[in-house]
Design brief:
ten-stranded antiparallel sheet; 2 domains; globular; HIT family, subunit A; alpha+beta; 7 helices; homodimer
Chain lengths: ~350, ~350
């Protein structure tokens, strides 16, 4: 069973994969760059190479775990957390830990061997969004979980695997991730003072100044954030205030798919198909009506953070929480605005 | 002038290098792997290739900026922060920023073209430690600064430059880094409850259990931390309680050099000379006797965190603060204990 361990000083939870652990000498040879694989377990027809699907969008006449689907969700073959068992929170001297209970699911976004989400149709991206929502709502029913992390690793240096087939991941966790907590606390403090949502204010300011605006499309904007950590960091935010991604209605899903497609295509065209990560930050599960969560409907605002992986300045940042961004976001935004897609 | 910008939601300060910024199209081609350079600006005899030294350990008969030195400190040729000017804290709508005032210094640890600190003599590492202390005490005199970040990037994928010559960096900042603040807050909370230092308790527990102990040498221990973020993450801690690295006496500097040399050599021998970062976490400058800092003498404990760069699982972690460590620290410690150096 993997373990969730808490740093005793700053309280950060870490998944320690005691079970799928590779032997220490595995780390002797650093992973190689992508070698093109002739076989892809995520392509149409290779359904038997993945665990059985737990969700799929497929035409009525097709059968589960058989070809002909549009999108499939399968459990990770090497899950960071295990679905079975109790949390069993406990101490070990001054340390806190619990069992690594959770869910780890892989969203296979297309049955074709397409690597970059930018190359999917808008309608396919809208299906991915719908899938995220459906899976999150389902995982929320499990009383052991507090949060679902939804993210994408595109490209080897962004943590992607050797199989270059477009997919995302969902990890349901029994703790709230530190970054999300920090955002909840920070936006709560802002709300307490101003009685306004900090994200709503930020959106208004970015629409006024236009300095960091990349796209303004229907109900969404894409910006280079004022305190960007990385060159070409991009946030996508809904203009309408809402803390909870899962409440997104159908027309908004299509609008989000539209802006995501355009933003990812700008990255691809403008920066020669760079590796990137994105993470979806939304409110924790509703049942946690405590402390900082009590006014979450007013003070939090879901969004997507996209982080192209273009620089190596990482170890220092990990150790200090202090980021150095060599490219002003105003220049990044100007560059991306001008890329035609 | 570079800018220090504050994330309006979580309050993280970021250095935005508006001045030394590369053009956006610089990022079109990702940096190449190390190409061996025939010329190294950091070697003995090439003093004119660096800015004039601001500190040096050199025999009496040698002259500043001339050959024959043991260790030199020079300003960074591409500083993230500028030494001249006022902070000028100000707002811009809802955003906070200040001028990127600070110091950015390069410690050239040897006059020989040696890449890895592991290959320096212990006495040289002790000189590096003395240099850190001397520079920190000097930078503390500047009333604009609150902290000095001391760190090392070894190897290209740890953010090292193309010149593989062993050196460290010091960055004096007008703000306290987020990670250090979090440690101060966390250890304060622990102290308030237990009236003991969390690091002291941790050291005692690690010495008792020995599960994660890598080395126990004189006044220092090296451990794989309980909630390791990365495979082979290592912390070096002084057994004797002290919050302030700059108070380290001469005998302790030699002991620290001894354990650092052994730990870095174990990494080099055991893991085929991996890239790594280390950061020194010590108390902020003393003049800040406010809030969480008021009992810092009792509740904080300086230490060094070493992070080998063996995995790529980074973007997700950046976006969520949620780490997944594929190797249990107990196994990492056992492996490193058995490496003979």
């Amino acid at each position: 069973m993997p373990e969730l361990r808490k740093d005793p000083i700053i309280g950060r939870w870490v998944i320690v994969a005691t079970e799928r652990a590779k032997k220490p000498d595995h780390y002797l040879d650093l992973p190689q760059e992508t070698s093109p694989e002739s076989f892809c377990p995520f392509c149409d027809g290779n359904e038997s190479s993945t665990p059985p699907e737990i969700y799929a969008l497929r035409p009525k006449h097709t059968h589960a775990n058989k070809p002909g689907w549009d999108l499939r969700v399968v459990p990770s073959i090497a899950p960071f957390l295990r679905i079975e068992g109790d949390l069993d929170r406990r101490g070990k001297g001054l340390y806190d830990l619990m069992n690594g209970v959770g869910a780890h699911e892989i969203v296979i976004e297309t049955n074709k061997h397409i690597a970059n989400m930018a190359d999917l149709e808008e309608s396919q991206i809208a299906e991915v969004i719908t899938c995220y929502i459906d899976r999150m709502l389902d995982l929320e029913k499990d009383q052991r979980f507090k949060y679902v992390l939804t993210f994408k690793n595109y490209g080897r240096s962004a943590g992607g695997s050797k199989y270059a087939h477009s997919r995302s991941q969902l990890i349901a966790t029994p703790v709230n991730p530190k970054r999300v907590k920090e955002e909840l606390v920070g936006s709560r403090i802002y709300y307490d003072y101003h009685e306004r949502c900090v994200f709503c204010d930020l959106i208004r300011q970015e629409l006024d100044s236009k300095d960091r605006l990349i796209l303004d499309l229907d109900g969404f904007i894409a910006i280079a954030p004022f305190a960007s950590r990385f060159p070409f960091e991009i946030w996508i935010l809904p203009k309408k205030h809402t803390c909870d991604f899962t409440r997104l209605d159908m027309p908004s899903r299509l609008e989000l798919a539209n802006i995501m497609k355009k933003v990812l295509m700008k990255l691809k065209v403008g920066l020669s198909d760079p590796p990137y990560n994105y993470v979806l930050h939304t409110a924790p599960f509703r049942r946690q009506k405590l402390g900082y969560w009590k006014s979450i409907d007013h003070d939090y605002h879901w969004h997507i953070e996209i982080m192209p992986r273009l620089t190596r300045l990482a170890g220092f940042e990990w150790g200090t929480g202090f980021y150095i961004c060599p490219l002003p976001p105003e220049e990044a935004a100007r560059f991306l605005r001008e890329i035609k897609v």
